[in-house]
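Archive transcription. Copying these from loose printouts into the bound notebook so they stop getting lost. Printout 1 of 2:
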Amino acid sequence: MARVIVDVMPKPEILDPQGKAVHGALPRLGFTAVTDVRQGKRFELEVPDLDDESLAEVHRIAETLLSNPVIEDFTVRVDA
């Protein structure tokens, strides 16, 4: 059984109000080292037999269901 991680993030040119809210709260909580925050989503998918075909299917799932390709980018990686 393999675990495949799909990370979905807003594209750089897209406003991220959740990230801005977190960034605005950090100084009020005493955290000053962070200069920007972007908030995204992480999906963990269990795949029984990881091969090229199942990895290609995960890519199709990521681009059609897990992300909105107009405003989001995604990466797919296999968890070691």
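Printout 2 of 2:
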Amino acid sequence: MDFELTEQQQLFRKTVREWVDREAPKSWARELERDEHHFPHALFDKFTAAGFHGIGIPEQYGGQGGDVLTQMILARELARSLAGLTWVWGITSFAGGKSVGLYGTEEQKAEHLPAIVEGREKWAIGFTEPGGGTDLLGGMRTRARKVDGGWVVTGQKTWSSASHVADYILLLARTADHGEKRHQGVSLFILPAKAEGVTIREIPKLGMRALGSCDVFLDDVFVPDANLLGEQDRAWYMLLPTLNNERIMLSSFCVGIMDGVLEDALRYMQEREAFGGPIGRFQALQHHVANIAMWRDQAELMVYRAAWLQSLGRPCGQEANMAKVVASELAGQAADLGLQILGGMGYSAETDMQRYWRDVRLFRIGPVTNEMARNGIAEGLGLPRSFS
């Protein structure tokens, strides 16, 4: 068993860390978040200049190449400073680069992948619906009706982050009545976000403030046949491996957040003085940072395992679910202890601890709640489905 990154992976991690400290420090992340109703286009553009949008996209389309392990390293290093703002990179990477790269036609790849690499396209995800939440299939009311030359889509999506600035939305819609199983009869579309009949409204929220999460209203929106992604009526089979990738990516964000929490907690304990010396000498606080370090390493190992399995093309649904649950919950506990260590300063918007705490809270409830993930883990152990 080898738990070490390769020499090339270690060099990539070092390069990204230096880039983050120079180009996207925590102080700038706080400034971006304060301007919460304006998407951080400048951050997106910096990712473009650094080549990060090309990670995972084949070189023939202008990308940098790289597997899920490379993406995981990038996600972790960005999240150490940016926390939830890392989705400025992650959403387009998943909805555009990953999904089009796997299931797009040659024409779709040639149109969209170079544009993503060059920062000319932003993408969003349109899966969740108001009446469904995690129950994507049971709550799906959005329908695509076949017409000459394409489809007419009607319905509503919610929690579609960055859709207000997106060029395209990766849209999940029902295209046929399902048979015995609800996952039958759903399809994926490349929806132009500015198409006639699309209305987008931002949702005020606790964390990830500058990113913008939105309701998307679809009123008889025409989508041409050329924008059907993959095989009609079989989107669910396509989504399962990409959703594993999203969970691994999210888990990597959580490990990166724990890196940031530990970094800030240690610095504060060494600099802050009380009762005649630095507070780092207090055993209670030492136990807090020891717990954070242990949680971080525990989550890291689970995320590495899931990413390693996916990089080899092996089944990893169970491992991805486990990594997502453990990493998101431990990151929340770590940020909570970080607030405790910093005391009143942890609650202040002048520090990053409260930002870590707010951003990571969302990861426990999306894209799949941890309770639903636990159901899937139990089913993988041979227990009957607790939902239909």
